[in-house]
Amino acid sequence: MTARMHENNERLGFAGLILPVALFTIWYIATLDGGVPAYLLPSPLDLARTAIDFTAGSERLSPYSGTLLVHTIASLQRVLTGFGLAAVIGLPLGFLTGRLALAKSSLDPTVHLIRIIPGIGWLPLAMVWFGVGEKTTVFLISLAAFFPIYVNAAQGAASVSPMLIRAGRMLGANDLAIFTTVIIPASMPSTVAGLRLGLGLSWAYLVLGELTGVTHGLGAVMMDARMLGNVEMILVAMIFIGLFGRISDLILTSSFRKLNLLKRSYEE
User: Fold this and answer.
1) pTM of the complete model
2) Is 90 exposed, middle or buried (0-12, 13-18, 19+ CB in 10 A)?
3) Which letter does DSSP use for residue 42 in this model?
């Protein structure tokens, strides 16, 4: 059975490569010998050279040569700050809304009303409130990440089986203990899903925030490259944002997985 599962996983992993390889092949053929102009879509080789230069500064192809680390640190700080604020506020409110009728009736309508407003609609107001730059970016990231975190935490807390709560009370747990040892752990699958969605939106809204005029950051690189007509740098910045977003998602999920394993080993 284990060997068969391993074989199936290998087949699924191979199947996941089919679409990227096909897209890369089409891209390569389309840009071969200038079939598609480079100012619209650069070739994979030109993009690779730009990415290496952006990372190491070896070829001095653009003003961004060797500046990846500086821009990544700036963007990462904004993402972590905004996502952290959203999690600190969204998780407790979500858990309370999921379990307390008073919290649900008082918070839920307003939160869902605000949630409907698109993030870009907050941009002009954020620039009035916080000015151009750091604070506006962090605000937009926090606002975007808050809603999936809040909604999924509330859904997870609301879906906890009453049998688990009754079992906890039979063991003598008070309300606080029930909340911390039963409700929160039982709602973790939904909560982690909300955190992952919030983290993904944090990277997406990072670009929106950094387009407002910050000097450093991957979104700022995209904006400057657009003004210079440097399509290669726009695509390279997009690729690095996607890459770092994926890495942060893997770190988040693996951290919760390890915490769960530690909890289980402690209980055993």
Assistant:
1) 0.82
2) buried
3) -
Q: How many CA atoms lie within 13 A of 79 on its CB side?
A: 26
Domain extents for the chain?
Answer: 69-267
pLDDT in tens, the chain (268 residues): 455 545 555 555 566 678 778 887 887 787 777 677 777 778 788 888 888 888 887 777 678 888 899 999 999 999 999 999 999 999 999 998 988 888 888 888 888 888 888 877 888 888 888 887 788 889 999 999 999 999 999 998 888 878 877 787 777 767 677 777 778 888 888 899 999 999 999 998 988 888 777 888 898 888 888 888 888 889 999 999 999 999 999 999 988 887 765 555 444 4
> What are the tokens at 162?
């009453």
Tokens 């619209």 belong to 40
How far is the C-alpha of 141 from the C-alpha of 130, rounded, in Å?
14
Task: Give the SS3 label for residue 226.
Answer: helix
Please, are residues 141 and 202 in contact by the beta-carbon 8 Å criterion? yes
Spatial distance between the Cα atoms of 54 and 10, rounded to a whole number of angstroms: 34
* Residue in 154, 148, 254 with CA at minimum distance from that of residue 202: 148
Distance of CA 173 to the CA centre of its chain: 36
Task: Copy the structure tokens of residue 88.
Answer: 């600190």
From residue 125, give the alpha-carbon distance in Å to each of 43, 75, 78, 84, 230: 40, 22, 19, 22, 30
Q: What is the DSSP string of 101-114?
A: HHHHHHHHHHHHHH
- Superfamily covering domain 69-267: MetI-like (1.10.3720.10)
136/125 Cα distance (integer angstroms): 9
In angstroms, rounded to a whole number, what is the distance separating the alpha carbons of residues 95 and 232? 45
